[in-house]
Amino acid sequence: MFTDEDVKAWSKYLRMIRVQKKEASEPSVGQEEALAQEGLAEKTRMFDTTVMMKENDSTALLAKSDKSNASRRVEEDGRGTILGVLIVDLLGMGGESKAEAAQRQIEAVLADEAAMDRLRAELRHEDEIQRKQAEPEEEDLLEMKRSDYFAWMAREYRRRWIAVYSANFGSFDDTTRLGPMRFTDEPAPGYSASPMGTLQVFSVKVAGIKKSLKWPIDVFGVIAARDCIDNNRNVIFSRARDRCQTLTAEDRYLVLSGPTRAVVWSDHVSIEVKLTVKGRTESEDKDLSFLAVPLLTGDTGYSNLFCCYRTSKLSTLEFTLGHIVRSVEATIFVRVIDGSWLDSFHGQFSVFTTGRRDKNFRSTDHKKIILLDSVVEKFYVSDDGEIEMSRRVVSVENRGNLKVCIKSWEASECGKKVMKDELVFKPKENKRSHGVLDVGFCKMEVTVAWSLISYHPIPLNLY
């Protein structure tokens, strides 16, 4: 007498054997599907409590028995199967009908109790191996949660994002398809765009490293913001392994390259970090920081500056951020129009944004945003004089100002003689503003392209 568990065990074994076989005579997928469909209709008649079958104009009755009761479990083995064996495997048995072939197969399968005992032992052994293989992953997750809680949170954040958003917004690693200056030249349709709250990223600093690392360190990876407009990454920092940034104990700030458009922050936004320390070989690389930093905000009425720290297994990062209320987007271009930039000079382009102040909030007015620093990034000037900036998009409160600054100094004099100039622009909702910076040996035209911001991913105007 065999139990339902015996039948299920044998079904599992036969399916396993079937997968392992690589027979050249195996039917095509299309043939199997057709035969399976035919078998499905047949088995419905074959394995009922009592089944009447017509064969060669005669009638035979299959009596109730434990075997026929077990055969009713065939539904659990999948469409078009009998105890895990495809109907196509039961056809072609010399002179037998489908029903007779199926019944003979069942009786043969259930005949040998010793074989079934061996089968159960083998399957228990296989299940034990699979369980032991799966255990390390669970143990690794528990160890990650204990030793690097924020990395575990980042992993869970990624898993949840994929489950909820990937069907509509693509891969987790996809970058935003929306660019800056969406409404610089063309007005926003209707009331779909306006000044709104945004996230300003002033700087990201590796504030500390664990004793297992030593300065200097070569860092590569990605830092990105993710807002509600398109739920894709808005890259803030990005370096490939073959183009690392070297950080020292004296200079720990990452050279930011974004955001590529204004980061909307009316409700919530997140910052994602995946930074790696380069080793002598890829196998010796170490995870510096793996984070997902959720940020929530309310309607403060005033722009404000704040810092947040996140400590992972090997480092602590310091984020200097700003919530800019009722802001517009400013995209900044600089072009040499008189003279040329001298290779013997260093230079730094930066901006400041101002707004209404309140004594209860830290003001952003005096916090610098570096657009390009030739000490850490080489100046690239195109044939038409355009200077390639590390970053060029910032948010400006519509009741404040944008101040664009340049300072230059001769490299050999270590900054003893510094030449400076600055321009102040009043924010607009569209169009462009222009001005000229003068550092003596060259003049540069500054162009600021203004745009309102929209929640809606409307077709964009790329620069």
Describe this structure in words.
With about 475 residues, the chain is of the alpha+beta class. The chain has a domain at about 195-455. About 25% of the residues lie in helices and about 35% in strands. It contains 6 helices and 22 strands. It has helices at about 5-20, 30-45, 65-70, 100-110, 115-145, 150-170; strands at about 50-55, 60, 80, 85, 195, 195-210, 215-225, 235-240, 245, 265, 270-275, 285-295, 305-310, 315-340, 345-355, 370-375, 395, 400-410, 420-425, 430-440, 440-450, 455. The strands form 6 sheets. Strands 6, 10, 13, 14, 17, 20 and 21 form a 7-stranded antiparallel beta sheet that branches. Strands 7, 8, 9, 11 and 12 form a 5-stranded antiparallel beta sheet that branches. Strands 16-15-18-19 form a 4-stranded antiparallel beta sheet, with no helix packed on it. A hairpin with a 2-residue loop joins β1 (about 50-55) and β2. The chain is globular, with a radius of gyration of 34 Å.
